[in-house]
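Hi everyone,

Forwarding the result from last night's run.
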Amino acid sequence: MTRPIILDVDTGTDDAIAIMIAGLSTEIDLVGCTTVWGNHAVDRCTDNTLRVLDLIERPDVPVHKGLGKPFAPIPFQFPGHIDSAREIIHPADFPVPATTRGASGQHAVEWLVETLRSTTRRITLVPVAPLTNIATAVTLDPTIVDAVEEIVIMGGSHALGNVTPSAEANIWHDPVAADVVFRAGFERLVLVPLDATHRATVTGAQNDAIRRIGTPAATAAAALIRQRIDGYTKTQQQETPDAAPVHDALCVAYLLDPDVLDLTPLHVQVETTGFASYGRTIIDTARRSGETANAFVALDADAELFNTILSRSLAQAE
């Protein structure tokens, strides 16, 4: 039996690969994609999402455009905070063929609430973007969390940040929304932070092997991963040279094989008021807070297994 999932995306390079492997998998029923601002403005993220679904010949998957600004204003944005790095890693000129298809008319938040209210199957939510849409949906109807079997979030960090020294981009872009989601009462919340995604990188050699698979999805994914490798080489210090994480794809890989992540039940709190710490996920690894664990947190990942899942998924015919 296939697992129904909804992907909430701000489609740049890694979201695109997450969409590909979810949309190509015979084990996943991709119910729909919702889009939100993040890597780019929401209109561009929506267009990129449609392009990827066209590439893998999944016009049956609806795309619902969501919110284009944070759930709550960001008080500490600073000029050019990550724009230059973002443009290198997530180029405006998206290397996937254009689409003539448009988004579905129903707003993402409205569709999320309606879908989760009416579903007869519990659904897995996979937000790999700022949590603005999800926070708004659970604020409008808190009972929809009961329809969610599992929520798998790409975001946050314990040991490193990528937009500030202490914060990861998806959480930093809308910490108040993230705080709402962590407090919403989901039965099972899995957090895949930078600590895990940076342990499951794709090297240049592994990416060359993906390109040689030769399917349209593999060819496009290899171009996107090469963009990421070049971008990370230019903008960030890397433990492994000529390599890059593919953050969002790791969340979908986990759904296909949970062994790819090493999960630990921990309490996670989102910093919404600090200055230097704004947007930080405070992950209580030492269990000093006295709070009950509210998330299964991945602090490590199996890089070899991730690359196997990625290659196997991209080899599937559309």
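Residues 216-235 form the longest helix (20 residues).

Cheers,
N.
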